Amino acid sequence: MNENYTSGVQRLLKISKQESLKIGHSYVGSEHLLLAIIKDSKGSASNTLIAVGCDLGKMKNLLKESLTASNVTSTLGHLPLTRRAERILKNSFIEAKNDKRKSSGQNDLLLSMLLEKDCTLHKIFNLCSIDYQIIKSYVTSSNNIKIIHKKKYTDTEKESTLKMFSRNISDIAANGELDPVIGRNSEIERLSQILSRRKKNNPVLIGEPGVGKTAIVEGLALRILDKKVPRLLWDYTIISLDIPGMLAGTKYRGQFEERMRKMMIEIEKSSNIILFIDELHTIVGAGSAAGSLDAANMFKPALARGDIQIVGATTLSEYRKYIESDGALDRRFQKIIVYQPSIKSTIDILNGIKDKYESHHNVKISKDAINACVELSDRYINDRFLPDKAIDIMDEVCSRISLNSTTVPESVIKLEKKLKSIIDSKNKDIINQHFENAAKLRDKEKKILNKIASINSKFKTTIDDSELVEISDKDVADTVSIISGIPISKINEHESVKILNIKDSITKLIVGQDYAVEKLVAAIQRSRSGFKNPNHPIGSFMFLGPTGVGKTELAKQLAHSLFNKKESLIKIDMSEYMERYNVSRLIGAPPGYVGYEEGGLLSEKVRRNPYSIVLFDEIEKAHSDVFNILLQILDEGKLTDSLGHVIDFSNTIIILTSNIGTQSMSSSTIGFNKSKEKDLKTDLQLEVKKYFKPELLNRLDETIIFNSLNKENLFDIIDLQLNDLRKNLKSKNMSLRISKSAKNVLLINGIHREWGARPIRRIIQDEIENVISYKYLSGEIKENSTIYINGKGSQLIFKSKNKKTKSASKSS
Q: 76, 394, 497, 640: most buried by Cβ count inside 10 Å?
C-alpha cells in the first residue's frame, strides 16, 4: 500500500476516515474520498480542481447534501473501504502505470473518480461541469511544463518554503470552512484602510485573549473573496505564517535564516500576499543565536521598503513587553485596538455561528440557551473574555448533551466486532497465500458491511430535525456550574427546600446564636434568589464576641451545609499578617521578589474555589494595609493580584471575626447573668468604632455581636460534642447516657468564664473518653452495653448495664 500510493494519497485516506467518523458512518466511501480532496487545501488534486475553474464550495455543499449524518458511530478503529472506493484506488494505480510512474498520486485518484458512472460522484461532477478530459488535459499539460523546465521536484509544494510553513486563509475561506464573522465592521474597515496605505501599511491587532483578533483577519479574507474591500485588495491572498514550524528542525546555524530568506523572496516576488502572524511578539528573538539575526530584525528592512505586508495580532501586555520596547519595530506597525464586544454583540455572534455547532453536534440550540451562554459566562467566568468564553460554553454544553443522547445499537457493536475478526483472519490468509479462504472471508466481510449499512439506514430514518435534542438555558447553567464550581443552575424544588431549611440545620449545631444565624442565612437566601447586587460579595459580616462563643464554628458549619467540602472555607489567620511585609502573602509578592510567580494565598484559593466562605480570623491583629485590601473586596467585589489576574469575590461570603472590646463582656456575663448584656453590647459597638475605620464598617452588611453562653447553652454544647463519641460507641453496639449532674461536674472541673465553650472538647476527652477507653480495655465495660454517667460532688460516676442480661458494674 505504502509503495503504490504517494504520501498525498495516504493523507487523503486519513482525512476521509476522519470525515466518515464525524458524519457517523462506519465505512469509507467514494464520497468521503472526494470530501477529503476538497478539505486537503495543500493537495495537488484540490489545486487542479481550482485551476480548471471548479467551485469547491459548491462541490462541498453538494457532497454534504448527499452524505446523511448518523447518530451511530463506529466502535472500532478500523473503517473498511466500500467496493467502489476500492475500485477507485486500484484504477488510480493503473492511471499512474499508464504514465510510467511507480505510485499513484492525488490527480490519479481524481481521474479514477471521474471514470465512475451511475453514482453520486458522477452527478456532482456533472453539476460542477467537470469531466475526465478536462482534468486529464490539465494534468498532462502541467506534467509537460515540469519536464520542459526540468524541475527538481514533481510536487510544487516541496519547492515552496512559504507553503510548507503557512496556512492559506483565503483558500480556506473559498472552501467555506471559516465560521462567519459577525460584527467587527469598524475593525475590518480600519484594517482595509491601513493595508491600502502607500507606506507603513502593516496593521497590528491588539486586544485581550479571546476577543476575536484572528476572527477579524478571517473576516477580511471573506470580504476579499466577496470583493467587498477596496479595489487595491481584490487580488490579495492572506497567508498565516507558522513561526514555530519554521523554527522546528533548524539544528544548524543559518538554517532558520535560510528559510526566512526564501520565504521573504517568495512574498516579494508575488506582490499580492498579506502575511498574517498570530502572536506577533514571537518574532522577537525567534531563531536568534550568538552573532545571528532574529525574525524581527530580518523583517525590518522589508517592512521599511514596503516589500512585505504583515498583519499581526497580539495582546496588549505582550505588545508592550516585546514590540513597544523596540522602537524601530514599533514604528513600522499601525495599532488597531480590539475591545471585548458587548453582550448584545456577542449574542449576535453566537446566533451567527450556531448552525455550525448544531450541525457538528446534531443538536438544536434555543434562543434562551444562546442568551444564557453569554450572560452566565460574562457573570461567572471572570478571567476570560467575550466572545471566546461564551462560544466555549456553547460548544461544551452541545458536546455534553450530544454525548448523552448518542446511542449505538447493540447489533451494530456485535457485527463490528465480528467484522474486525474476519478482516484480521483474511489478512493472515493473504500473507500465507491461502487465497481461497481469503476470498470466502471477503464475501463474509461484504455481507456484514451490508447488514451494518442496513441497520444504520433504518436508524437514520428515525432521526429528523424535529427529534433532535434541544439545548435549553438550564443545560447551559448546569454546564457553567460544572466549569466554574458555582451553583448557578435554576433553583429546583429540592434545592429551594434545602436553602429554606438551612437556618434550622445550622441552629441545631450552633447553640445560643440564633440572631447571628438568621442574618447570615438571609444573605444566602437573597443571593440564591438572584436579588443581591451582582458586583458585591454575597454577604459581608463582622462577628464580635468573647472567645469560644461560636464565631468560627458558625462559618465552618455554614460552609459544610452549603458545599459539603473543606476547600469552600478559606480561613486566613490574621495573627500571621501583623507586619506590613506580610500583606504581600495575600495577593502575591511584587515583581522581582521571591515567590512572585506563586501568586497569593488568598487570591489563588478564591480563583480555584470562587464560591467560598472567606474567614478573616481575629481581624484586629492584622496590619492596617490589610484593611485597604478588604475595602476593595467589599466595595467592588474584585481584587487584582500581583500577576495581574482579576479575582472575583462576588460569589464569596466575607466574614471577619474579632475579640476586640469583649474582655469586660466575658468577665461579667459569661454563662449566667444577662442583666447588663444590652449595655455591654452598646459599649462594644462604641469600642469597635474607635478601632476600625468607618469606611470599613460602613461597607459591611452587618456587625453581629454574639451572645454570651449561659449554663443551658453549655449543656447543649456538651451534648453536641458527645455525638462523635456516641457514633464510635454505636459501632460496638454500645450507647451513652449522661445526666445533668454529670454535665455540671464537667463545667465545674474545666470551664473557665473567659474561655467560653473552647475547653469542652478537651474536658470530654480527659474526663469521659479516657475513662471509658480504660474500662473497656480492662473488661469493666463490655460490648452490647449502655454506659450511664452521673455526677456527685466534683466526680463522675460511671455505670454500665448489659443490654441483654441487665447486669451492672460500678466504679467512680
A: 394
